[in-house]
Inverse folding.
Protein backbone atom coordinates (compact mmCIF):
# COMPACT_ATOMS: atom_id res chain seq x y z
CA UNK A 1 0.00 0.00 0.00
CA UNK A 2 1.36 3.44 -0.94
CA UNK A 3 2.02 6.12 1.68
CA UNK A 4 -0.93 8.17 0.39
CA UNK A 5 -3.32 5.22 0.61
CA UNK A 6 -2.09 4.32 4.10
CA UNK A 7 -2.70 7.89 5.32
CA UNK A 8 -6.13 7.98 3.70
CA UNK A 9 -7.09 4.67 5.32
CA UNK A 10 -5.85 6.01 8.67
CA UNK A 11 -8.00 9.14 8.38
CA UNK A 12 -11.12 7.15 7.45
CA UNK A 13 -10.59 4.81 10.42
CA UNK A 14 -10.04 7.80 12.70
CA UNK A 15 -13.30 9.43 11.56
CA UNK A 16 -15.23 6.18 12.07
CA UNK A 17 -13.74 5.67 15.53
CA UNK A 18 -14.61 9.26 16.47
CA UNK A 19 -18.24 8.66 15.50
CA UNK A 20 -18.76 5.33 17.36
CA UNK A 21 -19.68 6.74 20.81
CA UNK A 22 -21.36 9.91 19.53
CA UNK A 23 -25.10 10.50 19.54
CA UNK A 24 -26.01 11.15 15.89
CA UNK A 25 -29.78 11.51 16.32
CA UNK A 26 -29.43 15.32 16.22
CA UNK A 27 -28.04 14.93 12.71
CA UNK A 28 -31.09 12.94 11.66
CA UNK A 29 -29.23 9.61 11.82
CA UNK A 30 -30.97 7.04 14.05
CA UNK A 31 -27.85 6.14 16.08
CA UNK A 32 -27.88 7.07 19.76
CA UNK A 33 -24.18 6.35 20.31
CA UNK A 34 -22.71 4.37 23.19
CA UNK A 35 -23.64 4.53 26.85
CA UNK A 36 -21.07 5.68 29.41
CA UNK A 37 -19.77 2.15 30.09
CA UNK A 38 -19.46 1.38 26.38
CA UNK A 39 -17.46 4.58 25.86
CA UNK A 40 -15.28 3.66 28.85
CA UNK A 41 -14.54 0.23 27.33
CA UNK A 42 -13.73 1.83 23.97
CA UNK A 43 -11.35 4.30 25.67
CA UNK A 44 -9.74 1.45 27.63
CA UNK A 45 -9.23 -0.38 24.32
CA UNK A 46 -7.36 2.64 22.90
CA UNK A 47 -5.17 3.01 26.00
CA UNK A 48 -4.42 -0.73 25.96
CA UNK A 49 -3.67 -0.58 22.23
CA UNK A 50 -1.08 2.21 22.80
CA UNK A 51 0.77 0.03 25.33
CA UNK A 52 0.44 -3.00 23.03
CA UNK A 53 1.92 -0.97 20.14
CA UNK A 54 5.02 -0.53 22.30
CA UNK A 55 5.21 -4.28 22.96
CA UNK A 56 4.75 -4.95 19.24
CA UNK A 57 7.71 -2.68 18.44
CA UNK A 58 9.91 -4.59 20.92
CA UNK A 59 8.63 -8.10 20.22
CA UNK A 60 7.10 -8.05 16.75
CA UNK A 61 9.50 -5.77 14.92
CA UNK A 62 12.80 -5.88 16.86
CA UNK A 63 12.44 -9.55 17.83
CA UNK A 64 13.17 -9.02 21.54
CA UNK A 65 11.09 -9.95 24.57
CA UNK A 66 9.48 -7.90 27.32
CA UNK A 67 7.49 -8.89 30.37
CA UNK A 68 7.52 -5.41 31.88
CA UNK A 69 5.02 -3.38 29.86
CA UNK A 70 2.49 -3.27 32.70
CA UNK A 71 5.28 -1.92 34.96
CA UNK A 72 5.92 0.90 32.47
CA UNK A 73 2.18 1.51 32.36
CA UNK A 74 2.34 1.78 36.15
CA UNK A 75 5.22 4.25 36.02
CA UNK A 76 3.19 6.53 33.74
CA UNK A 77 -0.01 6.08 35.73
CA UNK A 78 1.54 6.78 39.15
CA UNK A 79 3.60 9.69 37.82
CA UNK A 80 0.48 11.30 36.32
CA UNK A 81 -1.68 10.61 39.37
CA UNK A 82 0.84 11.87 41.93
CA UNK A 83 2.17 14.85 39.96
CA UNK A 84 -1.40 15.78 38.99
CA UNK A 85 -2.33 15.95 42.68
CA UNK A 86 0.53 18.44 43.12
CA UNK A 87 -0.93 20.68 40.43
CA UNK A 88 1.29 19.65 37.51
CA UNK A 89 -0.70 20.07 34.26
CA UNK A 90 -1.67 16.86 32.45
CA UNK A 91 0.36 17.75 29.35
CA UNK A 92 3.58 17.83 31.38
CA UNK A 93 2.63 14.61 33.21
CA UNK A 94 1.98 12.88 29.88
CA UNK A 95 5.26 13.96 28.28
CA UNK A 96 7.11 13.27 31.55
CA UNK A 97 5.64 9.74 31.68
CA UNK A 98 6.95 9.03 28.19
CA UNK A 99 10.39 10.45 28.98
CA UNK A 100 10.73 8.67 32.35
CA UNK A 101 9.64 5.34 30.82
CA UNK A 102 12.09 5.91 27.93
CA UNK A 103 14.96 6.58 30.38
CA UNK A 104 14.04 3.60 32.60
CA UNK A 105 13.81 1.52 29.41
CA UNK A 106 17.35 2.53 28.47
CA UNK A 107 18.63 1.85 32.01
CA UNK A 108 16.98 -1.57 31.96
CA UNK A 109 18.07 -2.28 28.40
CA UNK A 110 21.79 -1.54 28.91
CA UNK A 111 22.62 -4.53 31.13
CA UNK A 112 20.05 -6.60 29.24
CA UNK A 113 21.90 -6.02 25.94
CA UNK A 114 24.28 -8.79 26.83
CA UNK A 115 21.35 -11.12 27.33
CA UNK A 116 18.94 -10.88 24.42
CA UNK A 117 15.72 -12.76 23.70
CA UNK A 118 14.66 -15.17 26.50
CA UNK A 119 17.26 -13.84 28.91
CA UNK A 120 16.01 -10.32 28.28
CA UNK A 121 12.54 -11.66 29.13
CA UNK A 122 13.84 -12.76 32.54
CA UNK A 123 15.50 -9.37 33.16
CA UNK A 124 12.21 -7.62 32.38
CA UNK A 125 10.34 -10.15 34.52
CA UNK A 126 12.55 -9.26 37.48
CA UNK A 127 11.98 -5.55 36.82
CA UNK A 128 8.24 -6.11 36.60
CA UNK A 129 8.18 -7.75 40.04
CA UNK A 130 10.44 -5.03 41.47
CA UNK A 131 8.24 -2.21 40.11
CA UNK A 132 5.10 -3.88 41.48
CA UNK A 133 6.74 -4.20 44.92
CA UNK A 134 7.61 -0.50 44.84
CA UNK A 135 4.03 0.43 43.86
CA UNK A 136 2.68 -1.73 46.69
CA UNK A 137 5.20 -1.10 49.47
CA UNK A 138 6.15 2.56 49.06
CA UNK A 139 2.79 3.55 50.51
CA UNK A 140 3.87 7.12 51.41
CA UNK A 141 4.31 7.92 47.74
CA UNK A 142 2.03 5.48 45.92
CA UNK A 143 -0.67 4.91 48.51
CA UNK A 144 0.29 1.21 48.68
CA UNK A 145 -2.61 -1.23 48.32
CA UNK A 146 -5.03 1.65 48.98
CA UNK A 147 -3.82 3.27 45.77
CA UNK A 148 -4.38 6.84 44.59
CA UNK A 149 -7.98 8.08 44.46
CA UNK A 150 -9.85 10.88 42.71
CA UNK A 151 -7.43 11.31 39.85
CA UNK A 152 -8.58 14.34 37.89
CA UNK A 153 -9.47 14.24 34.22
CA UNK A 154 -7.26 16.54 32.08
CA UNK A 155 -8.14 20.14 31.34
CA UNK A 156 -7.54 21.00 27.68
CA UNK A 157 -7.56 24.70 26.78
CA UNK A 158 -9.62 25.42 29.91
CA UNK A 159 -12.12 22.65 29.08
CA UNK A 160 -12.36 19.87 31.68
CA UNK A 161 -12.88 16.46 30.07
CA UNK A 162 -15.48 15.14 32.56
CA UNK A 163 -17.75 13.85 29.82
CA UNK A 164 -16.85 10.26 28.81
CA UNK A 165 -17.18 10.97 25.08
CA UNK A 166 -15.03 14.12 25.31
CA UNK A 167 -12.32 12.19 27.14
CA UNK A 168 -12.61 9.40 24.56
CA UNK A 169 -12.04 11.91 21.75
CA UNK A 170 -9.03 13.29 23.62
CA UNK A 171 -7.54 9.78 24.00
CA UNK A 172 -8.38 9.02 20.36
CA UNK A 173 -6.48 12.14 19.22
CA UNK A 174 -3.41 11.14 21.26
CA UNK A 175 -3.65 7.53 20.05
CA UNK A 176 -3.82 8.83 16.46
CA UNK A 177 -0.67 10.94 16.94
CA UNK A 178 1.20 8.02 18.59
CA UNK A 179 0.02 5.61 15.87
CA UNK A 180 1.19 8.01 13.17
CA UNK A 181 4.56 8.45 14.95
CA UNK A 182 5.10 4.69 15.15
CA UNK A 183 4.00 4.25 11.52
CA UNK A 184 6.53 6.92 10.52
CA UNK A 185 9.33 5.21 12.46
CA UNK A 186 8.50 1.82 10.95
CA UNK A 187 8.40 3.23 7.41
CA UNK A 188 11.78 4.94 7.88
CA UNK A 189 15.21 3.26 7.69
CA UNK A 190 14.89 2.78 11.47
CA UNK A 191 11.95 0.41 10.89
CA UNK A 192 14.02 -1.54 8.37
CA UNK A 193 16.85 -1.78 10.92
CA UNK A 194 14.41 -3.01 13.61
CA UNK A 195 13.16 -5.69 11.21
CA UNK A 196 16.78 -6.66 10.49
CA UNK A 197 17.33 -7.19 14.25
CA UNK A 198 14.43 -9.60 14.32
CA UNK A 199 15.26 -11.48 11.12
CA UNK A 200 19.03 -11.79 11.27
CA UNK A 201 21.02 -9.79 13.85
CA UNK A 202 24.32 -11.40 12.78
CA UNK A 203 23.93 -10.24 9.18
CA UNK A 204 22.54 -6.85 10.29
CA UNK A 205 25.68 -6.22 12.37
CA UNK A 206 27.91 -7.13 9.43
CA UNK A 207 26.06 -4.54 7.30
CA UNK A 208 26.82 -1.72 9.71
CA UNK A 209 23.56 -1.84 11.70
CA UNK A 210 24.47 -1.05 15.30
CA UNK A 211 22.52 -3.95 16.79
CA UNK A 212 23.06 -2.83 20.40
CA UNK A 213 21.87 0.72 19.77
CA UNK A 214 18.80 -0.28 17.75
CA UNK A 215 17.85 -2.93 20.32
CA UNK A 216 18.09 -0.28 23.02
CA UNK A 217 16.08 2.20 20.93
CA UNK A 218 13.33 -0.32 20.23
CA UNK A 219 13.16 -1.28 23.90
CA UNK A 220 13.15 2.34 25.15
CA UNK A 221 10.60 3.54 22.56
CA UNK A 222 8.33 0.56 23.30
CA UNK A 223 8.60 1.28 27.03
CA UNK A 224 7.82 4.98 26.42
CA UNK A 225 4.57 3.92 24.73
CA UNK A 226 3.79 1.95 27.90
CA UNK A 227 4.49 5.04 30.05
CA UNK A 228 2.28 7.27 27.91
CA UNK A 229 -0.52 4.69 27.94
CA UNK A 230 -0.26 4.66 31.74
CA UNK A 231 -0.56 8.43 31.80
CA UNK A 232 -3.91 8.14 29.98
CA UNK A 233 -5.02 5.13 32.03
CA UNK A 234 -4.87 7.00 35.38
CA UNK A 235 -7.42 9.75 34.50
CA UNK A 236 -9.56 7.19 32.65
CA UNK A 237 -10.10 4.94 35.69
CA UNK A 238 -9.68 7.82 38.22
CA UNK A 239 -8.31 5.37 40.80
CA UNK A 240 -5.15 3.29 40.58
CA UNK A 241 -3.69 0.57 42.78
CA UNK A 242 -0.78 -1.82 42.06
CA UNK A 243 -2.83 -4.76 40.69
CA UNK A 244 -3.11 -3.69 36.99
CA UNK A 245 0.67 -3.20 36.86
CA UNK A 246 1.72 -6.68 38.04
CA UNK A 247 3.34 -9.46 36.04
CA UNK A 248 0.02 -10.99 34.92
CA UNK A 249 -1.05 -7.92 32.91
CA UNK A 250 2.44 -7.78 31.35
CA UNK A 251 1.94 -11.33 30.11
CA UNK A 252 -1.46 -10.25 28.81
CA UNK A 253 0.22 -7.52 26.72
CA UNK A 254 2.46 -10.17 25.15
CA UNK A 255 -0.63 -12.27 24.49
CA UNK A 256 -2.39 -9.31 22.83
CA UNK A 257 0.48 -8.82 20.40
CA UNK A 258 0.67 -12.52 19.56
CA UNK A 259 -3.12 -12.92 19.19
CA UNK A 260 -3.45 -9.75 17.11
CA UNK A 261 -0.47 -10.55 14.89
CA UNK A 262 3.08 -9.98 16.03
CA UNK A 263 5.02 -7.70 13.68
CA UNK A 264 1.88 -6.46 11.91
CA UNK A 265 0.90 -2.81 12.22
CA UNK A 266 -2.75 -3.35 13.22
CA UNK A 267 -2.03 -6.45 15.33
CA UNK A 268 -1.91 -4.57 18.66
CA UNK A 269 -5.28 -2.91 18.00
CA UNK A 270 -6.88 -6.25 17.20
CA UNK A 271 -5.13 -7.97 20.12
CA UNK A 272 -6.12 -5.21 22.55
CA UNK A 273 -9.68 -5.47 21.21
CA UNK A 274 -9.72 -9.19 21.97
CA UNK A 275 -8.27 -8.67 25.45
CA UNK A 276 -10.57 -5.78 26.41
CA UNK A 277 -13.79 -6.55 24.54
CA UNK A 278 -13.93 -10.37 24.56
CA UNK A 279 -14.16 -10.67 28.36
CA UNK A 280 -17.08 -8.19 28.21
CA UNK A 281 -18.91 -10.25 25.59
CA UNK A 282 -18.19 -13.53 27.38
CA UNK A 283 -19.21 -12.14 30.78
CA UNK A 284 -22.60 -13.86 30.46
CA UNK A 285 -20.79 -17.20 30.88
CA UNK A 286 -19.39 -15.92 34.19
CA UNK A 287 -16.79 -18.39 35.46
CA UNK A 288 -16.39 -20.11 32.11
CA UNK A 289 -15.33 -17.06 30.15
CA UNK A 290 -11.62 -17.39 31.00
CA UNK A 291 -11.71 -21.00 29.92
CA UNK A 292 -13.41 -20.14 26.61
CA UNK A 293 -10.94 -17.32 26.11
CA UNK A 294 -7.94 -19.59 26.78
CA UNK A 295 -9.20 -22.33 24.42
CA UNK A 296 -9.92 -19.78 21.67
CA UNK A 297 -6.38 -18.38 21.99
CA UNK A 298 -4.80 -21.87 21.96
CA UNK A 299 -6.76 -22.91 18.86
CA UNK A 300 -5.86 -19.67 17.10
CA UNK A 301 -2.16 -20.04 17.92
CA UNK A 302 -2.08 -23.67 16.84
CA UNK A 303 -3.78 -23.01 13.49
CA UNK A 304 -2.67 -19.43 12.74
CA UNK A 305 0.54 -18.41 14.53
CA UNK A 306 0.38 -15.13 12.56
CA UNK A 307 -2.53 -14.07 14.79
CA UNK A 308 -5.87 -12.61 13.73
CA UNK A 309 -4.31 -10.15 11.27
CA UNK A 310 -2.40 -13.08 9.74
CA UNK A 311 -5.68 -15.03 9.57
CA UNK A 312 -7.40 -12.19 7.69
CA UNK A 313 -4.40 -11.84 5.35
CA UNK A 314 -4.51 -15.60 4.69
CA UNK A 315 -8.19 -15.54 3.66
CA UNK A 316 -7.73 -12.34 1.63
CA UNK A 317 -4.90 -13.97 -0.32
CA UNK A 318 -6.92 -17.15 -0.79
CA UNK A 319 -9.89 -15.16 -2.09
CA UNK A 320 -7.76 -13.14 -4.50
CA UNK A 321 -6.41 -16.39 -5.97
CA UNK A 322 -9.94 -17.69 -6.70
CA UNK B 1 50.62 -1.70 -4.43
CA UNK B 2 48.97 -0.50 -1.20
CA UNK B 3 47.91 -3.15 1.32
CA UNK B 4 44.27 -2.59 2.29
CA UNK B 5 44.28 -5.45 4.76
CA UNK B 6 47.23 -6.56 6.86
CA UNK B 7 46.86 -9.71 8.94
CA UNK B 8 49.75 -10.30 11.32
CA UNK B 9 50.39 -13.47 13.33
CA UNK B 10 46.70 -14.17 14.02
CA UNK B 11 46.14 -16.92 16.54
CA UNK B 12 42.92 -18.33 17.93
CA UNK B 13 42.48 -21.07 20.49
CA UNK B 14 39.31 -22.73 21.75
CA UNK B 15 40.34 -24.29 25.05
CA UNK B 16 43.15 -26.68 24.17
CA UNK B 17 42.47 -26.57 20.42
CA UNK B 18 44.53 -24.09 18.41
CA UNK B 19 42.35 -23.38 15.37
CA UNK B 20 44.56 -20.66 13.83
CA UNK B 21 48.32 -20.66 14.42
CA UNK B 22 50.10 -17.43 13.53
CA UNK B 23 48.64 -16.59 10.12
CA UNK B 24 50.01 -13.48 8.36
CA UNK B 25 49.22 -12.07 4.92
CA UNK B 26 48.50 -8.81 3.08
CA UNK B 27 45.65 -8.06 0.69
CA UNK B 28 46.35 -5.38 -1.90
CA UNK B 29 43.95 -3.00 -3.57
CA UNK B 30 42.09 -4.54 -6.52
CA UNK B 31 43.27 -8.05 -5.67
CA UNK B 32 41.11 -11.19 -5.43
CA UNK B 33 42.76 -13.38 -2.82
CA UNK B 34 41.51 -16.92 -2.37
CA UNK B 35 41.84 -18.78 0.93
CA UNK B 36 41.58 -22.53 0.49
CA UNK B 37 42.18 -25.52 2.69
CA UNK B 38 40.55 -28.75 3.78
CA UNK B 39 37.62 -28.78 6.24
CA UNK B 40 38.75 -27.81 9.74
CA UNK B 41 41.86 -25.99 8.49
CA UNK B 42 40.78 -22.76 10.23
CA UNK B 43 39.51 -20.70 7.27
CA UNK B 44 36.21 -19.60 8.77
CA UNK B 45 37.80 -18.99 12.19
CA UNK B 46 40.39 -16.79 10.49
CA UNK B 47 37.59 -14.88 8.71
CA UNK B 48 35.71 -14.42 11.95
CA UNK B 49 38.86 -13.11 13.68
CA UNK B 50 39.49 -10.61 10.87
CA UNK B 51 35.85 -9.45 10.88
CA UNK B 52 35.40 -9.00 14.63
CA UNK B 53 33.01 -11.90 15.09
CA UNK B 54 35.70 -13.60 17.21
CA UNK B 55 38.42 -11.94 19.29
CA UNK B 56 41.80 -13.43 18.28
CA UNK B 57 43.94 -14.92 21.03
CA UNK B 58 46.98 -13.16 19.52
CA UNK B 59 48.07 -11.08 16.55
CA UNK B 60 46.59 -8.02 14.84
CA UNK B 61 44.42 -6.95 11.91
CA UNK B 62 44.89 -3.58 10.17
CA UNK B 63 42.75 -1.90 7.54
CA UNK B 64 44.47 0.91 5.63
CA UNK B 65 47.19 0.87 8.28
CA UNK B 66 44.75 1.30 11.18
CA UNK B 67 44.68 -1.41 13.83
CA UNK B 68 41.11 -2.78 13.86
CA UNK B 69 41.69 -5.90 15.96
CA UNK B 70 38.58 -6.62 18.02
CA UNK B 71 36.41 -3.94 16.41
CA UNK B 72 32.74 -4.95 16.12
CA UNK B 73 31.51 -6.01 12.65
CA UNK B 74 29.29 -2.90 12.38
CA UNK B 75 32.31 -0.64 13.09
CA UNK B 76 34.40 -2.50 10.52
CA UNK B 77 31.61 -2.17 7.99
CA UNK B 78 31.67 1.59 8.45
CA UNK B 79 35.40 1.47 7.57
CA UNK B 80 34.50 -0.10 4.21
CA UNK B 81 34.84 -3.81 5.06
CA UNK B 82 31.89 -6.15 4.43
CA UNK B 83 31.35 -9.85 4.25
CA UNK B 84 29.05 -12.65 3.22
CA UNK B 85 28.50 -15.81 5.24
CA UNK B 86 28.91 -19.49 4.51
CA UNK B 87 25.18 -20.05 5.05
CA UNK B 88 22.63 -17.78 3.38
CA UNK B 89 22.10 -14.58 5.34
CA UNK B 90 19.46 -12.47 3.63
CA UNK B 91 16.42 -10.94 5.34
CA UNK B 92 13.68 -13.31 4.12
CA UNK B 93 10.61 -11.17 4.86
CA UNK B 94 11.99 -8.01 3.22
CA UNK B 95 11.82 -7.55 -0.54
CA UNK B 96 14.98 -7.98 -2.62
CA UNK B 97 15.19 -4.19 -3.09
CA UNK B 98 14.65 -3.56 0.64
CA UNK B 99 17.48 -5.99 1.42
CA UNK B 100 19.80 -3.92 -0.75
CA UNK B 101 18.67 -0.60 0.75
CA UNK B 102 19.15 -2.00 4.25
CA UNK B 103 22.66 -3.09 3.28
CA UNK B 104 23.63 0.49 2.50
CA UNK B 105 21.44 2.70 4.70
CA UNK B 106 23.67 2.86 7.78
CA UNK B 107 26.28 4.64 5.68
CA UNK B 108 23.91 7.46 4.69
CA UNK B 109 23.76 10.62 6.84
CA UNK B 110 23.18 10.72 10.59
CA UNK B 111 20.96 8.27 12.43
CA UNK B 112 18.48 11.02 13.33
CA UNK B 113 18.59 12.30 9.75
CA UNK B 114 17.60 8.84 8.54
CA UNK B 115 14.51 8.92 10.78
CA UNK B 116 13.19 12.10 9.16
CA UNK B 117 14.69 11.67 5.69
CA UNK B 118 13.67 9.66 2.64
CA UNK B 119 12.22 6.19 3.20
CA UNK B 120 14.90 4.62 0.99
CA UNK B 121 17.68 6.73 2.59
CA UNK B 122 18.40 8.07 -0.90
CA UNK B 123 19.61 4.63 -1.96
CA UNK B 124 16.84 3.81 -4.47
CA UNK B 125 18.89 4.54 -7.63
CA UNK B 126 21.93 2.72 -6.21
CA UNK B 127 19.77 -0.31 -5.30
CA UNK B 128 18.28 -0.34 -8.81
CA UNK B 129 21.77 -0.19 -10.32
CA UNK B 130 22.89 -3.10 -8.15
CA UNK B 131 19.75 -5.09 -9.06
CA UNK B 132 20.58 -4.52 -12.70
CA UNK B 133 24.25 -5.41 -12.24
CA UNK B 134 23.43 -8.69 -10.49
CA UNK B 135 20.53 -9.34 -12.90
CA UNK B 136 17.90 -9.34 -10.18
CA UNK B 137 15.71 -6.49 -11.48
CA UNK B 138 12.77 -8.77 -12.31
CA UNK B 139 12.77 -9.98 -8.69
CA UNK B 140 13.11 -6.54 -7.06
CA UNK B 141 9.76 -6.63 -5.26
CA UNK B 142 9.71 -10.34 -4.40
CA UNK B 143 10.28 -11.39 -0.80
CA UNK B 144 13.93 -12.45 -0.52
CA UNK B 145 12.89 -15.69 1.19
CA UNK B 146 10.91 -16.75 -1.90
CA UNK B 147 13.97 -16.67 -4.21
CA UNK B 148 15.88 -19.79 -5.28
CA UNK B 149 19.06 -20.63 -3.40
CA UNK B 150 21.27 -19.37 -6.23
CA UNK B 151 19.32 -16.12 -6.53
CA UNK B 152 19.63 -15.56 -2.78
CA UNK B 153 23.40 -16.12 -3.09
CA UNK B 154 23.52 -13.42 -5.77
CA UNK B 155 21.50 -11.09 -3.52
CA UNK B 156 23.79 -11.93 -0.59
CA UNK B 157 26.81 -10.91 -2.66
CA UNK B 158 25.09 -7.78 -4.01
CA UNK B 159 24.31 -6.66 -0.43
CA UNK B 160 27.99 -6.78 0.46
CA UNK B 161 28.68 -4.15 -2.22
CA UNK B 162 25.80 -1.78 -1.40
CA UNK B 163 27.75 0.10 1.22
CA UNK B 164 30.42 0.96 -1.33
CA UNK B 165 32.80 -1.37 0.51
CA UNK B 166 36.40 -1.44 -0.71
CA UNK B 167 37.14 -4.81 0.84
CA UNK B 168 34.67 -7.70 0.73
CA UNK B 169 35.26 -11.08 2.37
CA UNK B 170 33.20 -13.81 0.72
CA UNK B 171 32.73 -17.02 2.70
CA UNK B 172 32.01 -19.87 0.25
CA UNK B 173 30.04 -17.83 -2.29
CA UNK B 174 29.72 -20.83 -4.62
CA UNK B 175 28.42 -23.24 -1.95
CA UNK B 176 25.16 -24.86 -3.05
CA UNK B 177 24.84 -22.79 -6.24
CA UNK B 178 23.97 -24.73 -9.42
CA UNK B 179 26.61 -24.74 -12.22
CA UNK B 180 24.60 -22.44 -14.52
CA UNK B 181 24.21 -19.76 -11.90
CA UNK B 182 27.78 -20.25 -10.70
CA UNK B 183 29.21 -18.97 -14.00
CA UNK B 184 27.03 -15.86 -13.68
CA UNK B 185 28.12 -15.26 -10.09
CA UNK B 186 31.82 -15.60 -10.97
CA UNK B 187 31.44 -13.32 -13.97
CA UNK B 188 29.61 -10.66 -11.88
CA UNK B 189 32.27 -10.76 -9.15
CA UNK B 190 35.04 -10.44 -11.72
CA UNK B 191 33.18 -7.52 -13.35
CA UNK B 192 32.73 -5.63 -10.08
CA UNK B 193 36.43 -6.18 -9.31
CA UNK B 194 37.37 -4.85 -12.73
CA UNK B 195 34.96 -1.92 -12.88
CA UNK B 196 34.87 -0.73 -9.25
CA UNK B 197 38.39 -1.87 -8.27
CA UNK B 198 36.75 -3.80 -5.39
CA UNK B 199 39.10 -6.04 -3.40
CA UNK B 200 38.02 -9.53 -2.36
CA UNK B 201 39.13 -12.26 -0.03
CA UNK B 202 37.32 -15.49 -0.94
CA UNK B 203 37.05 -18.71 1.04
CA UNK B 204 35.96 -21.45 -1.31
CA UNK B 205 35.93 -25.23 -1.68
CA UNK B 206 34.98 -25.20 -5.37
CA UNK B 207 38.45 -25.40 -6.96
CA UNK B 208 37.30 -24.58 -10.47
CA UNK B 209 35.51 -21.45 -9.23
CA UNK B 210 38.37 -20.26 -7.04
CA UNK B 211 41.11 -20.95 -9.61
CA UNK B 212 39.19 -19.01 -12.27
CA UNK B 213 38.30 -16.05 -10.04
CA UNK B 214 41.31 -15.43 -7.82
CA UNK B 215 44.58 -13.71 -8.70
CA UNK B 216 46.43 -15.16 -5.69
CA UNK B 217 45.81 -18.00 -3.26
CA UNK B 218 46.88 -18.90 0.23
CA UNK B 219 46.45 -22.45 1.45
CA UNK B 220 45.69 -23.26 5.08
CA UNK B 221 46.16 -26.60 6.77
CA UNK B 222 45.84 -27.20 10.51
CA UNK B 223 45.56 -23.47 11.18
CA UNK B 224 48.65 -22.32 9.32
CA UNK B 225 49.65 -21.21 5.83
CA UNK B 226 51.36 -24.03 3.95
CA UNK B 227 51.51 -22.39 0.51
CA UNK B 228 50.96 -19.08 -1.22
CA UNK B 229 51.09 -17.95 -4.84
CA UNK B 230 49.18 -17.71 -8.11
CA UNK B 231 46.58 -20.41 -8.82
CA UNK B 232 49.03 -22.19 -11.12
CA UNK B 233 51.83 -22.13 -8.53
CA UNK B 234 49.51 -23.45 -5.83
CA UNK B 235 48.17 -26.16 -8.10
CA UNK B 236 51.73 -27.44 -8.65
CA UNK B 237 52.87 -27.11 -5.01
CA UNK B 238 53.62 -30.61 -3.60
CA UNK B 239 52.68 -29.56 -0.05
CA UNK B 240 49.23 -28.52 -1.27
CA UNK B 241 48.81 -31.70 -3.27
CA UNK B 242 49.76 -33.66 -0.17
CA UNK B 243 47.61 -31.73 2.31
CA UNK B 244 44.61 -30.71 0.32
CA UNK B 245 44.20 -31.68 -3.30
CA UNK B 246 45.26 -35.23 -2.64
CA UNK B 247 46.12 -36.02 -6.27
Amino acid sequence: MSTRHSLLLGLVLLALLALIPADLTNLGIPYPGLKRYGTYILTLWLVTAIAAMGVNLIVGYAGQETLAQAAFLGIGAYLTAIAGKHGVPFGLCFIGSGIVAFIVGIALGFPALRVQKHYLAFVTLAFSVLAWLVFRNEAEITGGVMGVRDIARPIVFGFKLRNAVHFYWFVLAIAAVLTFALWWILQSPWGRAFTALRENPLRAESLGVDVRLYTLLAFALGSAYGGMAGSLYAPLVEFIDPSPFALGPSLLFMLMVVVGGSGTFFGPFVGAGVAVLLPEWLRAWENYYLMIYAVAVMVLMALFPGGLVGLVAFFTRKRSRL
Amino acid sequence: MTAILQVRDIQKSFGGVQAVRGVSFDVHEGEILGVIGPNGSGKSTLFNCILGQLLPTGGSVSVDGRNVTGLRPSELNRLGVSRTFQLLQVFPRLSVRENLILAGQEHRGSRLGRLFGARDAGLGPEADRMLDFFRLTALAHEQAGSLSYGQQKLLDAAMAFMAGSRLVLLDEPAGGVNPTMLGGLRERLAAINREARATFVVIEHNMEFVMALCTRLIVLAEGQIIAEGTPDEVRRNPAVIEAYLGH
